[in-house]
Amino acid sequence: MNIERWHRRLVETGPSALLEYLAYILFFPLAVIYGFLTKIRVALYRSGWLRSYRSPVPVISIGNLAVGGTGKTPVTDLLVKSLLKKKKTVAVVSRGYGRSGRAPLVVVSSGKGALVSATEGGDEPVLLARRNPQAIVIVSADRRRAIRHAVYECGADIILLDDGFQHLKVHRDLDIALLDARKPFTNGFPLPFGLLREFPSAIDRADLVLLTRSRGDEEFSFGDKTVLRINYKLSDKVTNLDGEQLELEKLKPGRIGAFAGIANPDSFFQSLESSGVTPIKTLVFSDHAVYGTSELTQLHGLASRCDALITTEKDLVKLGNAKLPCDCWSIPLELDVVEGLESLESVIDDTIMYHKEKLMLDQSLLDILACPKCKGDVEYSAKDEKINCNQCNLSYPIRDGIPVMLVDEAFEING
């Protein structure tokens, strides 16, 4: 049994057996406890008890309120392409879910195409790097470290923080939250009773709400927030492991098998059927699955009964040079903006401009600062994020964007 798939069904359709009813009863108090813990965590960041890292360049966060399945990768891809058109040196910073390597930081792309496999860099980062060879893509559990590397080693001038809505360790200049327009908050509860990572009220933190799988007629109110509505459709072309393309129509007469290792595989299979492809059998793997011996054995068994296999782009990049009895094709998810593209572009431009103005203000502040010990001039070290007095050889910290000009708080520059 696929636990993730079982849990999603349980939440979306309710329990149908005795054990499921017992699990459902147990999940409720756990969800309430978890939800309040997330509220406490947010409050600690807002009050300053926990501090967020402030990047020297603008940070745009793209994230979900619910776990998986909202179509975040095509949205991130849209933003990367938009920023590249604006001649920005954009870096995608991700945790790199599903990667099996233990390296604390991996440069998936330095702006010249993918440098590593999906095993090393994660399926989504590698897919984004292949789609956008000019973009910088870095994965690390320590997003602060990844941002600093992107800025100071790769020259990034804007950061896209992938899956960053709950990652409050990094301050963001624009917070974009994705919601599935069909069921924005599912049953309204956090995990494990629901599918949310926080209570629905957390959406108040978002600057922009992006409704995915939207028909354009949903009546949701998010106050004065900018709302973008998008929909997805499967492409009419498929791509195989060698990069060759084929019209989807040419595969339809044959025996097709389908598999997916994503958060909501049933949605993918339903989309295939809506496109006229009815698989003779489907295989479901865990989200961000690594295709090892067991998984490949199952795929061999499926492929031996089929004329072709179809999967998602994120799954295909993880197969590498796997040899299967029949061709394996991926079908891209294409994005259709229903409403709000101009608003999105405007919000991004405003974010970039605001950050520039803030830097100018910071420079003006620096011009009037003086070392409290010698009363002499000071310099700002962007890389170290400190205010330095070379005459006294002292370095003053910056906390939450505010210089702490106290001798007792300073330390030797070379100490």
Brief overview:
The chain is an alpha/beta fold and 415 residues long. The chain has helices spanning 3-13, 18-47, 72-85, 118-121, 123-131, 143-152, 265-274, 293-303, 313-319, 341-368, and strands at 59-64, 90-94, 106-110, 136-139, 158-162, 174-180, 208-212, 226-234, 237-240, 245-247, 256-260, 281-284, 308-311, 327-330, 333-339, 379-381, 386-389, 394-399, 402-403, 411-412. β16 and β17 form a beta hairpin.
SSE blueprint and pairings:
Layout: H1 3-13, H2 18-47, E1 59-64, H3 72-85, E2 90-94, E3 106-110, H4 118-121, H5 123-131, E4 136-139, H6 143-152, E5 158-162, E6 174-180, E7 208-212, E8 226-234, E9 237-240, E10 245-247, E11 256-260, H7 265-274, E12 281-284, H8 293-303, E13 308-311, H9 313-319, E14 327-330, E15 333-339, H10 341-368, E16 379-381, E17 386-389, E18 394-399, E19 402-403, E20 411-412
Q: Roughly how much helix do the residues carry, as a percent range?
A: 25-40%
Distance between the termini: 57 Å
**Adjacency order of strands in the biggest sheet:** 3-4-2-5-1-6-7-8-15
The count of strands amounts to 20
Describe this structure in words.
The chain is an alpha/beta fold and 415 residues long. The protein is built from ten helices and 20 strands. It has a nine-stranded mixed beta sheet with strand order 3-4-2-5-1-6-7-8-15, with helices on both faces. Strand 16 and strand 17 (386-389) form a beta hairpin. The longest helix is centred in the first third of the chain and has 30 residues, at 18-47. The radius of gyration is 24 Å and the shape is globular. The relative contact order is 0.12.
